[in-house]
Write a structure and sequence with these properties.
7 strands, five-stranded antiparallel sheet, single chain, mainly beta, flat
Length: about 120
Amino acid sequence: MATTRYNTELMRQSNSEWNLDNLRYALGAGVTTATSLSIGGDINIAECALKFVHQMPSGGTVTIKIWKAQGAGEVTLTFGDDPHEIPYTFVALDSTTDWSGSSLSSGERLCRIELELP
């Protein structure tokens, strides 16, 4: 079964912490240990599920659930005196089911955005 990859970037996030697992997800490949990330030799791009929760100043939340995604394959690491900002970009993939295994119609196969107001 072929996977449909949408060229539209769905999520871009900057992170200021060094999390090697997050780097591996953003690159779409690699092997991590507690202190290292090794990359190379694997031509398969890993898929992941993403859940992003934004706390609004009003007390409400916006939750984005991306059923299936791939890292865009690029991570820029800059070094300097300022705190590190590591941008991650993910691209949504077509998914026929949500995380609980329920079927998704053709209009909801990329993601769901949920708004919870206080």
